[in-house]
Amino acid sequence: MEKIYRILVINPGSTSTKIAVFDNEKEVFSRTLRHSTEELQPYKQVADQFGFRKQLIVDALLEANIDIQSLSAVIGRGGLVKPIPSGVYEVNETLKHDLIHAPQGEHASNLGGLLAADIAAMVPGAKAYIADPVVVDELQDIARIAGHELFKRVSIFHALNQKAVARAYARSVGKQYDDLNLIVAHLGGGISVGAHRHGRVIDVSNALDGEGPFSPERSGALPAKQLVDLCFSGRYTEREVDRMISGRGGLVSLTGSNNVKELVERGLNGDQKTLRIIEAMAYNVGKEVGCMAAVLHGNVNAILITGGIAYSAFICDYIKAMVEFVAPVVVIPGEDEMQALADNALEVLRGERQPEVYK
Ligand SMILES: Nc1ncnc2c1ncn2[C@@H]1O[C@H](COP(=O)(O)OP(=O)(O)O)[C@@H](O)[C@H]1O
Ligand SMILES: CCCC(=O)OP(=O)(O)O
Fold this sequence. Notes:
By secondary structure, the chain is an alpha/beta fold. It has a 6-stranded mixed sheet with strand order 3-2-1-4-6-5, with helices on both faces. A 5-stranded mixed sheet has the order 9-8-7-10-11, with helices on both faces. Helices cover 36% and strands 19% of the residues. It has 12 helices and 11 strands. It has 2 domains: 6-132 and 337-349, ATPase, nucleotide binding domain (Nucleotidyltransferase, domain 5, 2-Layer Sandwich), CATH 3.30.420.40; 159-333, Nucleotidyltransferase, domain 5 (2-Layer Sandwich). Residues 13-16, 188-190, 216, 258-261, 264, 307-309, 311-312, 335 line the site of adenosine-5'-diphosphate (ADP).
């Protein structure tokens, strides 16, 4: 009889914690725990949200009658550790250290490996993993050069979902991911737009670092001179300016909310100012897709729009109208991250692949 492995998947995003339980490939439970701007407000640092998110996960499992002791492994979305190749990594002490001290900055996904390790530690024999963290780096060399010698461009994006969606699209058209040129726009709490050339993300707008389009809670690119003046105005601390770029930028700053579903409804019900801001976010995504089309020299098989915001037909139609001259636009709303994480853990549990060692 086939051995059943039970896998808990934990995916902390900036505005949600998604959890799911899989018995081998089959999802037996899933829940999206959404966190409003107000709920997250009391936590100074992302790491401070650990206890809050852990309690929500444990309560949700309890409510669904899922015994933590029945778990074979726990896999979390990986965070802002050192740039590493795509793969599955066991959560060891070095990885935990980097998830806590975050050499590349703060993001909710830093909690993924930590929550996975904490919950796996409750179960004798269970191990914790991360896979395709947000720091997966496949940039072509020319894309790393920024306009001053003290700066360099860095790859931080929705690697797990961008790749899962790109592979799923390739399968759906009977092709290999490695044979296609795709532009993937992931629209979530953060937004990243990537140029996938034959299975490698050779350029991508960094979702965290003040690049590309603004998003529900990120500023995206800001006018540099204005930013410098603001930094030296004496009116804001370093931490406050950091939060303007990530956490309290984008729609949170412009509208007070990170909830695109509500904002679109508000806009379509006559709030012109909100509508204009939502359109501006979509406009910037369209513009970034155009940049990635140039990166791929116009050889683009398809443009994929994904992430929670892709559920909004209004936003997708706006982007489509701007970019469908480049290539067919395919909307794949939500994300395939949970299944992708579970599949990665299952391959390790079945001994079909060896986890990488994070050093
Ligand atoms: N039906 C919908 N229409 C528009 N926006 C939506 C819809 N469903 C979810 N969203 C928005 O998607 C965003 C969250 O996307 P998601 O990919 O789940 O984010 P993350 O994982 O980064 O927290 C939120 O702003 C949410 O309001
Ligand atoms: C840090 C890059 C990935 C990202 O922005 O994720 P969220 O959209 O979940 O915040």
